[in-house]
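Reopening closed ticket. The problem is back. First fold of the pair:
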Amino acid sequence: MKLAIISAIALPALVSAHGLRDAHHARQAPASSSVPAASPATSVGTPASSAAGAPAQSSAVGAPGTTAVTGPSAASLTFTLASTNPSAVPLSEIASGVSSEPTVAATTTFASGTTPTYLPNAPPLPNAATLAPASYPTLDKTPPTDSPEVQQWIQDVKNSGIQIPDITPTNPGGCPNNTEAAADQSRCWWTCGGCKGDDDIEECPDKMTWGLTYDDGPALHTGKLLNYLDTVNLKATFFVVGSRAISYPALLQQEYMAQHQIAVHTWSHPPMTTLTNEQVIAELGWSKKIIKDVLGVTPTYWRPPYGDVDNRVRAIAKAMGLQTSIWTRISPTATFDTGDFDIAGGLTSSTQVLNNWQSIIGNATTIDHGFIVLEHDLFQQSVDIATGYILPDALAHQPAFNIMPIVQCLKKPLQDAYLETNDNSSNPIGMSTTGSGSSSASGAHPGSSTGSASATGNAAEASGSSSGASAHGNGAMSFASPSSLGGAALGVVAGALALFV
């Protein structure tokens, strides 16, 4: 239990920060018989945060042009689910503060040197037991930029040949505190204004195709999600937070060996546009490094926390060999976000999340392309709503959805998801280490940066293969919790601790 408590203490940094999401963009709009992007959307989500990193309050200013709900919705379901899981946790028990179910450890562990035979040319798995916590940054904090690793990654970005726009970082506080930046079209800020970059992945090309994704893990209940996905033969993209990857390396290996796509979700889950160039590099570099140290492969896809990305952050990610992947937006103010993350903090209800889901699939059947939905595997409540209700309902939907990881919904082989296995033919990310390359002209080609991938993908690993302390299966490793969670987050911390004690 001690290890579970350590992990629970480490998690609320994300709980608190996730309040920012609602200040950036709306939840899903009700389904329309016409293409919904033509009309303003109304938020059906939860309250917005008044400051970056602060928990959402009982009322706040939502995304521009939206109406924010001012508390958890106790409304009943507005639709009938096509199917549910017979073993689903009752909706009344998927709520903040409800006693936790037992956690599910990695059901399969893999010996060092095991080769993932499903992935052509994949290297063997590293020995996760040799990971040394002292070799990595503090959990859930933006890493310092003066380490040898980060200094090397900074130089690699400079050598990449990709021009990083001279854009000032945004202010904490989301859209309401950044009106000038939000109005600056040259910035192309996805979260505030809905600007999509030329290379951003927001959707799958084929109608009725769902790019299934889960963010912020691996965590204490990810094992339950993995078991369910295996039972129904579904594969997903897991956007992995570096601080969670080093805490649960066995679960990360299980995700990877089960043929799910592993992608980057930063080291500590900050709003990326608020960071300096060097801090952005540190967040991405350390996340890439821990994934490589646990799996032996380096992801070529990433998702910005809160979808918080602009042209400066996009360019840095591209210079580091990472394709920016977000989720579906149907108007400047409405996106395919279930709101599942907010159940654990008491900011929304399980019934509201399912009503959001119904709106999402209603819109998904009217658009002329596939879609990507924002969901999470950090907390028990998000996993329970997914395995008990959302996924069974989706699997029973008629006409049927075609559900798969993002890289495959883009009609690319799974090997393109990793630097070491990508053959550069269908997913050219650049292999030059000389810095003489330049940005690809193909705006529709995911992962098409050139001149940087090898340097930024491999120099990191060369600079710090860790050894020493052993990992204990799926248990959290012995990291100190963040030194300060912030006084404003104490209420959310208590709720999160209640999930695991």
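Second fold of the pair, where the issue appears:
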Amino acid sequence: MYLLDRLASLIGDDNCYCLPLFVFLCVMSLFHLPILIYKLRMLLYSILYFCLSFDKSWKDPQDPGAIFGPHLSKELPVQCKTIYFIRHGESCWNETFNKGAHRSWQDFAVGFIPGLIKACLYEIYLLLSGKLDSWFYDSPLSHLGLAQIEELHTFIENKSNMNGSESLHLKVLRGDPDAPKSKLVSSGLRRASSTIAGCFRDRLSRRPDDKIVVISSLQEISRNPDTLSITPAQTTIQASWIEKHYKLCNFQDIYDNQTDMSLYTGNKSITSYGLLRMNDFCDFVFSTDVTEEHVIVGGHSIWFRSFFNMFLPFSVQHPSKSKKIVNGGVIAFDLMKAETKRGSKYMIDPKTVRIVYGGF
């Protein structure tokens, strides 16, 4: 009672109607105590991660062009696989904090404060309703993001979209019977895995043995809380409150039955950094876990841009090094592997980088 009286005195007699509301919010939070504790842990970890992480800082590796030039000139053996980078659709975090291509700076500035209030109210609602979900942490696809992946899904499934080399790319993406075998891989962040699930739902339906393999090495490179995963290691991803009401794709069914979490080791650690995870991804692509020659990757803009910067020859000027892949965009390229005295080395063949959909 003392605490309540003290709080009432701080609020003031004229505003004491706020006290019952405060008590109600506290009771509702305590009613969902496990969720409250988990969110508090996420809050603490996000603060520590923001302050202590060096996720975007590393020493540049040796120029891959300097490694592969002599290697190729001597006709030494090189392995090669085709990679498809697919950037996720717009997320709720993007909706709140990024202008995006769909609105002007003026519209973004005018709507920023109302949008931030909306985001905070949603976060409070998700907490009080006992949902292990979030607008900010592991930010899911927004309504615009769902529309973007629907456009990509339509493009992939439309068999009239065929001419030249694009024909092979689309056959691989669809998993056509006459196409080379391919593997679906995704970041553990929901906006990326949902993009793969939504875009390839028809493929997954046609091929019930297909699975989306989730790996931690694809987690976005940034200190922001939206790049921290709320899915524990080797645990089924839970569809967001937005995705649960989406009628064109049963995301949870795909997560439950056609998503492989066995290689997912959970959230990135404070000691992890971008280049380390990019090298882990390259090792994974050429490991015994991936027998397919084509790998379809759901991931993130900064991670992808950093990958092009680190694995294209440093002398090559390419838009991928300075620009982000658009939301829902698809870029194809060949990734090469060479064994050297210093271990396995990787390089993107610059002649093979192709825009399949969207671009930069």
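Update: turned out to be a display glitch only; the data is intact. The radius of gyration is 23 Å. The mean pLDDT is 90. Please close again.
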